[in-house]
Each structure stands twice: as structure tokens, then as C-alpha cells.
Specification:
This protein is α/β, with parallel strands linked by helices. 34% of the residues lie in helices and 24% in strands. The longest helix has 18 residues.
Amino acid sequence: MKNLLNKKILFIICGGISAYKSLETIRLFKKNGAEIKTILTTSAKKFVTPLSITSLSQGKVYSDLFSVENETEMDHISLSRWADIIVIAPATANTISKLAQGTTDDLASTVVLASDKDIILAPAMNVRMWEHPTTKTNIKKLKGFGYKLIGPDVGDMACGEYGEGKMSDPSVIAEEVDKYFLNQKNNKKFKALVTAGPTNEYIDPVRFITNKSSGKQGYELAKSLSKKGFDTTLISGPTNLEITKDINLIKVETADEMLVATQENLPVDVAIFSAAVADFKINKKYENKIKKQENLNLNLEKNVDILHYVSNHNSMRPELVIGFAAETNEIDKNAEEKLNKKSCDWIISNDVSNKDIGFNSDYNEVTIHYKNKDVKKEKLSYKKKSGISDEIVDRIIDQLN
């Protein structure tokens, strides 16, 4: 497990009989060169002690949300920023429920909510608790947020029952976390470009043609790519969104500026064109503000189709070119026509007439239309745009590898 070397793992232990396995998991992480900090929930202290954890991890154990000793450090922020990954093992039904609801009543749940890192859960609970509809709903919700699961396994439980709900073996957890960092390292060879947001096409110095795109899906795609190891450039039209410092952000306003920025940042391995680029611009922009008048005729001309341009640019064409189709009717038909017309590899379509998954929503439901695959389309069900982005990027990684 060479990929754990020098990695920073924030390990959260929840209260459950499986908490004893956390000691062996920490030992394996430490043995393979990882740096460990641990959060122990109040109930977890009934199963393992801070002293035993500290002796194995050689790192500090945290438990109190508000500690006089550490109040200036703001632990819930500093710990989440320090870590390369957060591992919760065992993840109890209670903790899973709190995370799904966004409850922050202790240090562990507050750190997770404040985190911008990937979070891995190793569930552990009675088989009936695992099979309960509430738990299934909470797990589905967390997967939609981008959480990753290891296990649970099927086997004998401490309560005497048998079934699914047993925490995975520490060696399995350590290997899966090692594999996570291996994938990140392998993906560092890839360069990605994402366009996002609307464009503004000026009529005069104060008026412009634009659209309702928020840029949220494109920004989440850039974050997912970067998080998974890609060297990522984001070319963004006007938005109020923020992005992490590890992403090369280029801000533009017009379609022409977005085209130039795209040209200047090729070649890449994958290009995702999620921006809602205006189809038309003003033939001749007015130099001064247009005064109110009875009638106004505007002469429009077509903008360059950036997706079509890149898809057909033989010398600089990325290995994988992905476009978006924001449609209001005949979604599949229009997306498939666009896939062929633009000569790209994938088109990702969604219904923007649905306010729950429209431009300004934090949620989405999309269909990926593939050009050269046996399966021609694949639906990604309703979830947060961050979760949709993770699923799309996982498929990109599979194709590039």
C-alpha cells in the first residue's frame, strides 16, 4: 500500500461494537506512512480510549466541538482543510442519519459538513437497522452528495444475528483508501478543460443578451475532476460562484472570449462544454447607451459554435469531447441530433423546464448519450449536482483508462 505514504487521513470513530476494529485500521494506515488525526465521538469513548488511539496514530485525538484549549484553531474548519480524505469507521446508523440531514451537534458531524474533501463511510450496524427504509434513504442521499461506501459485509454480528451490516475488515478499508490515492495519482497525467456559466453579448455599454445559466454544474464538474487528480482548467462566464485554488480559473464574458480562452488552453485529454454559450451576438455593438425609443431593431449574427469547433479540430482535438444539451422538450431526440451534428463523443442532456433540475437548482437529473458505445444512453438519477459530477467523472476516468 505505497499510495498511503505522506497522506493526511482524518479518521472519525463512532460509537459501536465495531469501534475496536478502528485501532487495527489506524495501525495499517500508520504502518504504510499515512499521517493520522482522529475524532472520537462521545459514544465511541465507551468502546475505545483516546490513549490507545494516540499510541497507535502518534497524532492528536479530538472530541469536543468547543474546546478552550483549541478554540483559536477552529477545529471544525482546520481539521477539514488539513485532511486529504475523511474516513468514518465505524459509521453508525445514527451518524449516517445526522450526515444525511445536515445535523451538526458534535465535532464529527460539524467537520464533515464543513469539509470540501472526499468522505468514505464504513457502515456498521445490526442487519435490521441496515435494511430499514430510513437507512436506505439516508445512504442514497449521502451517495448523491458524493460520499463513498466501503461495505458493509455479510456475516455474524456481535448481537448474535447474521446478515448484512458488518463493518468491513480493516485490511479492506486500508486497501480501498490506498486505491483511492492510486487513482488520484494515475489521473494526474490527465488534463481537463471545463466551460461553465452563461455568456453576455453586449448591445450597448449597459445592456446585453444572456441566459439563466448559473454555472453550478460546470463548477461542480471542475471540482470533481480536480479532486480526482486531473490538472483542471475552468473557463467561466459571469457567475457569483467560487472555486478552489487548485483549479486554473479563467473568467470571460462573451462567446468570443470563451472561444479564445479555449483555444489557448488546448490540448487537453478531456474537454467538457457545459457553458450555455449564446447562439447569437449583436452584429455591431452600440458605442453609447441606447436612449428609449418607440422601436428598436437589432441585427444579430451567429457566434462560433465552440463545441463543434473543438470536436472537428483534428490537430488539437481532445481524446474525449463532451457537450451539454439543456432542453425543454423532446430531450432524447434533440440530444441525439446534437451528438451527431457536433461530432462530439458524449452529450449530457437535462430538462431545464423542470425547476427542480433547472439552471439555478443545486440538483440535477441527466442522461449521458454516447456515440461509440454499445449502450447508447445512461440516466443518472436525481441528486445534487456535486453527486452528478462525481458520477460523470468516474465514467470519464473509465474511458480514458
